[in-house]
């Protein structure tokens, strides 16, 4: 086994934990007369060929011998198992740093929560954390973090020497790729790396020499990240050779080309939204650089990222800040100004500032009317109608105007969304029959053409219409289906669906479970800085009052406190478990937790990523998957995803 990883990550320390091992210095490769059964070769990277030859010879002569090597690069011998080390987990890193600080000064008041951000910057590398302790003691946590110009500032001297050695070992093309990749903060995907001239073979080589580390990305895929010290070293080299502007231009051109063609559309494609959110750190790095240069392309990226965050229910305050900061840079670009204003209109709606929403919407509409972008006109009209409706004004004319444009564009996905909004407006105005009539066209269109998340919004409206009609069974079926088809971590939509199930529970007298679900939904919205639609808030408040009145005050308070502590993903499982409709329809006999795991597998997440989302151990995820496979009779993850997609599409 070869333990790999960057300098300071703990390879030697881990090997030192092995008892009864004979340790050999690879710089001499002199073997003692008595080897025993376990041999440790520590630090093989500088004599890789000699160490590989030695291990091959020893294993041929002594098949029972076990060898553990530490190296920044795998030996490449037959039968080698590679154990790549990562930095410590955030919790372990914080605990180590606090312990080292308290060894220096036991009276200094520092808790693990105080150093979480510093540990994130230092990537949990133990050697760097050890060196950070005296700095924190001297400067405090904030001062220690602010004083770090690069990750190399706290790296042991051996780290720079090792990086220089790696630099010499690489080919010119590999070195150039390393330098360019240093402009990418955080995890990045192979497509972004390719835009900077780093193809698959180069990436594999940089992973092999422990400069790049595979890491889960925000969208559930596996990305890549340069170690902080390696990124700082590469950035120094890039600056020295005058290549920083060229590298940023390659990255900027690639990102802008991804976003700009879609800005005239009614909505950004769902796949683009998820890619941009996963790439948020590189996008923000480019925006900051363009802002300093007054480059209007920053507005393209700001609009794309902000609209993506808003669509997926993430970073609402950051979205608004990005849009506001971009506005002064596009005074001579009415198309970009209109897009930014429309984004601010949507952000204001999410925050419940409806008068401000209408001001932004009217300004955006005035500009869009001078441009040849009918889909954007329809989108702004829809936003204006939502603001009017939320303000208690008549919104029907704006909805019909937007719908007429969408019908002219023959876009069934957009038509289904506008019909959904029109139905919601009819419901709020008391026109129940009108809402049903509109949904009779809109729901089938959404099932056929909308993305799962957008279908879920239409299903929620259908559930609310059924509630208003007193048809609680249909309402529950629609809310459950919405929970099943949407992403379990969608912070804006899932609270609506969870509350829908809770409202139905109150009609059955299940007040304790209802209060728990109401509290969870409220906590999620508060954390986002979002508010629910006014009419829905009234419906929820009435049900909440009913549930509270139906319980002993002590039990009501306990249920509310418990619900406020439940994670969003766990709330989905609780809502499904509380639903009689979910259990009656079977769903392959899966439990709510198993169904949530199946949904995340369908989204492409690994067991490790699912474990992080659900706050459980990877082994527990594996157990859930084995039970799911046994119940459904499927083995490959692709077959499970196909079953889940088919089942949720057939739910009615």
Q: Which residues sit in consecutive blocks of at least 5 with pLDDT less than 50?
A: none
Main sheet: strands, sense, barrel? 5 strands, parallel
Tell how many strands the DSSP assignment holds: 7
- Please count the helical segments: 33
Strand order of the largest sheet: 2-3-4-1-5
Arithmetic mean pLDDT: 86
Beta-strand fraction estimate: under 5%
Q: In percent, how helical is the residue content? A: 55-70%
Distance between the termini: 53 Å
Shape: globular
Radius of gyration: 28 Å
Structural class: mainly alpha
Task: Explain what this protein looks like in three dimensions.
The chain has 652 residues and is mostly helical. Helix content is 66%, strand content 4%. The protein is built from 33 helices and seven strands. It has helices at 11-16, 48-61, 90-104, 116-121, 126-146, 157-169, 172-181, 190-195, 200-208, 228-240, 244-259, 270-278, 280-293, 297-312, 316-326, 334-350, 354-368, 374-390, 396-409, 412-428, 432-449, 452-468, 472-485, 494-507, 511-528, 534-549, 553-564, 568-578, 580-584, 592-602, 607-614, 618-632, 637-650; strands at 2-4, 22-24, 38-42, 66-70, 82-84, 212-216, 222-226. Strands 2-3-4-1-5 form a five-stranded parallel beta sheet. Helix 7 packs across helix 9, helix 12 (270-278) crosses helix 14 and helix 21 (432-449) runs antiparallel to helix 22 (452-468). The longest helix is centred in the first third of the chain and has 21 residues, at 126-146. The chain starts with a strand and ends with a helix. The mean pLDDT is 86.
């Amino acid at each position: 086994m070869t333990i790999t990883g960057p300098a300071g990550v703990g390879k030697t320390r881990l090997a030192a934990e092995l008892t009864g091992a004979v340790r050999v210095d690879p710089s001499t490769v002199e073997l003692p007369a008595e080897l025993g059964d376990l041999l440790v070769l520590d630090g093989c990277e500088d004599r890789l060929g000699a160490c590989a030859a030695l291990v091959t010879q020893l294993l041929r002569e002594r098949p029972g011998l076990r060898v553990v090597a530490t190296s920044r690069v795998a030996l490449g011998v037959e039968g080698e198992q590679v154990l790549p080390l990562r930095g410590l987990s955030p919790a372990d890193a914080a605990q180590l740093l606090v312990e080292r600080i308290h060894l220096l000064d036991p009276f200094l008041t520092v808790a693990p929560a105080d150093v979480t951000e510093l540990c994130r910057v230092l990537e949990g590398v133990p050697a760097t954390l050890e060196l950070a302790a005296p700095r924190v003691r001297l400067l405090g946590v904030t001062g220690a973090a602010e004083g770090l110009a690069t990750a190399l500032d706290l790296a042991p001297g051996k780290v720079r020497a090792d990086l220089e050695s790696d630099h010499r070992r690489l080919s010119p093309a590999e070195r150039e790729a390393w330098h360019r990749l240093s402009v990418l903060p955080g995890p990045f995907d192979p497509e972004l790396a390719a835009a900077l001239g780093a193809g698959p073979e180069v990436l594999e080589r940089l992973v092999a020499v422990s400069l790049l580390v595979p890491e889960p990305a925000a969208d559930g895929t596996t990305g890549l990240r340069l170690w902080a010290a390696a990124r700082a070293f590469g950035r120094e080299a890039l600056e020295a050779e005058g290549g920083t502007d060229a590298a940023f231009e390659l990255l900027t051109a690639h990102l802008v080309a991804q976003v700009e063609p879609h800005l005239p559309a009614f909505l950004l494609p769902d796949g683009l939204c998820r890619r941009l959110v996963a790439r948020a750190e590189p996008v923000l790095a480019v925006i900051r650089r363009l802002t300093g240069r007054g480059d209007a392309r920053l507005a393209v990226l700001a609009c794309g990222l902000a609209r993506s965050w808003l669509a997926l229910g993430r970073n609402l305050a950051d979205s608004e800040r990005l849009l506001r900061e971009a506005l002064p840079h596009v005074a001579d670009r009415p198309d970009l100004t209109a897009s930014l204003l429309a984004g601010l209109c949507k952000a204001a709606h999410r925050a419940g500032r409806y008068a401000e929403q209408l001001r932004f919407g009217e300004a955006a509409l005035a500009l869009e009317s001078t441009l040849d972008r009918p889909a954007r006109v329809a989108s702004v009209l829809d936003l204006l109608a939502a603001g009017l409706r939320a303000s208690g004004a008549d919104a029907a004319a704006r909805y019909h105007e937007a719908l007429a444009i969408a019908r002219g564009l023959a876009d069934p996905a957009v038509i289904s969304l506008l019909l959904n909004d029109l139905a919601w407006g009819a419901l709020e105005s008391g026109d129940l029959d009108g809402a049903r009539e509109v949904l009779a066209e809109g729901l089938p269109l959404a099932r056929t053409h909308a993305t799962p998340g957008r279908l879920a919004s239409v299903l929620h409206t259908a559930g609310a219409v059924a509630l208003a009609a007193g048809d609680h069974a249909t309402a529950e079926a629609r809310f459950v289906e919405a929970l099943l088809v949407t992403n379990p971590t969608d912070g804006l939509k899932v609270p609506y669906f969870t509350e829908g199930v809770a409202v139905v529970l109150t009609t059955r007298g299940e007040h304790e479970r209802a209060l728990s679900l109401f509290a969870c939904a409220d906590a999620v919205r508060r954390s986002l800085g979002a508010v629910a639609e006014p009419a829905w808030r009234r419906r929820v408040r009435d049900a909440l009052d009913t549930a509270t009145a139906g319980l002993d005050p002590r039990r009501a308070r306990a249920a509310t406190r418990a619900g406020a502590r439940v994670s969003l993903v766990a709330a989905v499982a609780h809502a499904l478990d509380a639903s009689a409709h979910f259990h009656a329809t079977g769903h392959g006999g899966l439990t709510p937790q198993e169904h949530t795991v199946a949904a995340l597998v369908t989204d492409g997440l690994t067991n490790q990523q699912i474990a992080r989302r659900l706050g459980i151990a990877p082994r527990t995820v594996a157990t859930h998957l084995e039970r799911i496979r046994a119940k459904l009779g499927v083995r490959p993850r692709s077959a499970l995803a196909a079953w889940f997609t088919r089942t949720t599409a057939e739910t009615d």
